[in-house]
Every structure is written in structure tokens, then in C-alpha cells.
Amino acid sequence: MDASRIDQAAQVLAQAWHAGTLLPGLDASLRPESMAAAYAIQSALVARLGGHRGWKVGAANAGAEPGCSALPACCIFDDGSVLAATRFGFCGIEVEVAVEFARDLPADPLACTPDLVFAAVGAVHPAIEILGSRYSDWRSRSAAEQCADLGSHGALIVGPASTVRDLRLIDATELVAILLCNGSEVVRSRGGNTAGDVRRMLPWLAVHAAQRGMPLRAGDIVTTGSCSGLFLAHAGDRLRGRPGDLGEVGLELS
Question: How far is the C-alpha of 209 from the C-alpha of 204, rounded, in Å?
Fold first, then answer.
């Protein structure tokens, strides 16, 4: 996929973001036919949205190759934020575990060793990701087309730093995630992250991001996938998420 079509695809998706409109899909000539093309569109889209301040990373199962998206700075919010439900194609709520990097990682992918990556983490946070889409029927779009659209990302709400500072101390296969909607528990899930041991996610992402010329930097927030499954919320809902003993994070949809 040449640079011109990559930029055109990113422009179409950016226009849908800004206008709040939904697309049936990208035109056939602009659809990524590989994950490499999808990531190229994703990078161009993030640039059009003002640049990134974080990442999401996950995997379909414990043995699957991870996938990721850079997260625009304009889509990362603090605990207690009030967000308009209309800014998302749908409001899919996921309770997650996020980390914040305290130090820059090398631009050389070969230098991003697991020990170096984990040593650069400064804090672990409870988080809620709101999934959204620029496609009217996102489930019908290919994996590459969804990846180009930031992996169906809508927003990330980051709670206060946990007393746990090392992701390696967290066993995601045993972590109990709880989601409350309007004060009532609607989700309770143990070991709900499909990636299994999420500790493999960060080293993979560090290498991947460096290969894309976007190495992880101090202040970057990385969220490591859903621990709760997907809950559909609506305007007027108040959501609170608790990933294990890592604290609590919430938001309101207006």
C-alpha cells in the first residue's frame, strides 16, 4: 500500500473522528491488506489527531501474537471524567490494568530487553477503556481495518497510581475485575484477560513501538487489555472499575 493511499485512509478516518460520523467501512482502494499497512494507517491517523501519549496492547489468547495501537493524547482522561456518549460509535466498557513509564526506552529495538522495559515502569494504574469505532458495523470489518482505526479505541480513563509498582507482581490469570454501573455490580470476572500472562505484552510492545519509530517515552500510558470482557454502556451511566487490588477508576457518560 503506497504512502498516498495510507494518507488518504488516515484522512477519511480522522474526518469521521472529528465529525462523529460512522462509515460503512473504508473504500476498497483504501482498505489495508496487511497488518503492516494497518499499522501505517494507524500511525498516520494518530498524527492527524495530534500525536500519541500512550498505547493499548493485547492478544486474542495466551499463544497469539499481540496487537496494539498508539493512543492519541486527546483520548486519555483522568479518573472521574464526564464524556459524551455520542463521541463513540458504541460505548464498550472494559476494566484494564495500565502502566505509566517513568523513563524513555531506547530507539533501538534490539536494546529493549525485558529487564530494561520493566525497570522503566514508574507506576501501575487501574484503567477503563471505552471502545468505540468509526465504522457503523465494526464487527464486520477485518482485523486490519479495525487495527487501522486504533483497534476500536474510544478513550482511556486512568485512575490513581496503585501501591503496586511492578507489573511482574500481578498474576492476570487470577486477577478479579469488577465493573459497577450506576452503583450495581454488572461484571465480575477472574482471569478475564484473553492474553493470559500480560507480562509478555510490554517487552513485545517496546520492540514493536521502536520498530515503528515511536519508542516508548516517559509519561506514556500503556494499557494491557480487558480483564472484564465487554460491557455496553449508555448515556447517563456512571461506571466504576476495580481491577483486583489495584484501586478504582470511574467515569460518567453524558
Answer: 9
Say whether 131 sits in a helix, a strand or coil: strand
- Runs of H (alpha helix) within 49-195: 114-119, 143-148
CATH number belonging to domain 52-253: 3.90.850.10
Each residue's pLDDT tens digit, 120-136: 999 999 999 999 999 99
38-48 b/e with 16+ CB inside 10 Å = b?
A: bbbbbbbbbeb
Q: Where are the domains of the chain?
A: 52-253
Euclidean distance between CA atoms 157 and 134, whole angstroms: 20
Say yes or no to pLDDT of 198 above 90.
Answer: no
Cα–Cα distance, 90 to 154 (Å, whole number): 9
Summarised one tens digit per residue, pLDDT across range 207-225 is 999 999 999 999 999 999 9
Q: pTM for this one?
A: 0.96
Instruction: Give the count of beta carbons closer than 10 Å to the beta carbon of residue 168.
Output: 12
